[in-house]
Amino acid sequence: MERRLRMGMVGGGKDAFIGAVHRIAAFMDGKIELVCGAFSIDPDISKESGRELFVAQNRVYPDYKTMIEQEALLPEGERMDFLTIVTPNFLHFEPAKLAMENGFDVVVEKPMTVSLEEALALQEVVQRTGRTLCLTHTYSGYPMVKQAKAMVREGHFGKIRKIVVEYPQGWLSRLSEREGNAGAAWRADPKRSGKSLVMGDIGTHAAHLAEYVSGLRITELCADLTTFVEGRLLDDDGSVLLRFENGAKGVLMASQISAGEENAVRIRIYGEKGGVEWANEDPNNLIVKMLDQPRQLYRTGNAYAAPYTLSSFATHNTRIPAGHPEGLLESFANIYRNFALTVSAKRKGETPSPEALDFPTVDDGVRGMAFIDTVVKNNESNEKWTKFVL
Ligand code: NAI
């Protein structure tokens, strides 16, 4: 029988940022319900969060280990189907591994882990258990990002030559980690965040977007990391030159001291015949620039006639008619819906559609951690180019 998937959560309590976004996204299409959680490091906050979310009190657990063990003992008709992990980076690996080894699928935040070793170990667990792991690289869920990817794949722009991806933010322009900002405090702590602050927090989003839209893998890079804010323990700004597998060249900028910026993610890709541009702050627009032609503006949700017809990947991820803005929450919800469609299909022994399978996985998580490692390695060395470690 068709039914909603049952979700458990680690993190995402009243003291958290992104957990609430996950719940909005998970619930948007009516395919998922929240049944249990260990919502906070603080048991009282966890309990209170569970109460506010109408989770049965006996399923608000003191910690994720107890939750996974106890849920695994419940009858099939009751226990959670998957675990969403929205804790600081250093608390992704253990719950993800434990969940999959106990028969649960996983949705986990980026960066997937705090080291490449952990990421590779998680990849092994996915292969061994056959579970589904979804990594929430938010920007890959937008319909116009999927349209850009489809156009690149179909050769609309010819052979790709240049990829420019940017993620500037300004919120760490001051030493916020010492001013009571809990989210900044763990992000700027190497033990809880990983080897790089800026690359772990937002650089992995940019690198994923570049590889996702272009369909090309980074092979080598040359990086320059800086800590601008005095007293900070990790980098807060980075510029990276990229080389891709087909000979394309690229530039990636990730910065958290770009004062005044919000979340100005932008990607531009140029081929022999033309280019494409997408920006998070204007996500329903896709600007197409063809050589010797006026610019074209593709918009989410339109039933354009051929040859401008939007790809099935763009339309599958669009909910409302053109002109009504869809944004980050819908993009996030697309990732959850595709994950839910895939998990449900697998449970019924069916093959998920290519559109349903189009969400970031453990392999993207491994690429992300390899990206951080390679950037840090290159930045610390005197060599100009460092080969991507995978
Ligand atoms: P946060 O600091 O706001 O919240 C962390 C939550 O985890 C809190 O509820 C905290 O109590 C809980 N927690 C910590 N240790 C725990 C434990 N042992 N058991 C249960 N709960 C525990 O952090 P934020 O900003 O929500 O980030 C969480 C993760 O999401 C990070 O990995 C971050 O990189 C990622 N993130 C991703 C975004 C995206 O665009 N995809 C945006 C923001 C964050």
TrEMBL record:
**Residue ranges of domain GFO/IDH/MocA-like oxidoreductase in the record:** 145-276
Going by the entry's taxonomy, the superkingdom of the source organism is recorded as: Bacteria
**Domain called Gfo/Idh/MocA-like oxidoreductase N-terminal: residue spans:** 5-135
- Show the InterPro entries listed in the entry: Gfo/Idh/MocA-like_OxRdtase_N (IPR000683), Gfo/Idh/MocA_oxidoreduct (IPR051317), GFO_IDH_MocA-like_dom (IPR055170), NAD(P)-bd_dom_sf (IPR036291)
**Record-linked Gene3D superfamilies:** Dihydrodipicolinate Reductase, domain 2, NAD(P)-binding Rossmann-like Domain
Q: Name one Pfam family in it.
A: GFO_IDH_MocA
Q: Which PANTHER family match?
A: CONSERVED EXPRESSED OXIDOREDUCTASE (EUROFUNG) (PTHR43708), OXIDOREDUCTASE (PTHR43708:SF3)
Any idea what this protein is called? Gfo/Idh/MocA family oxidoreductase
The scientific name of the source species is Sphingobacterium faecale
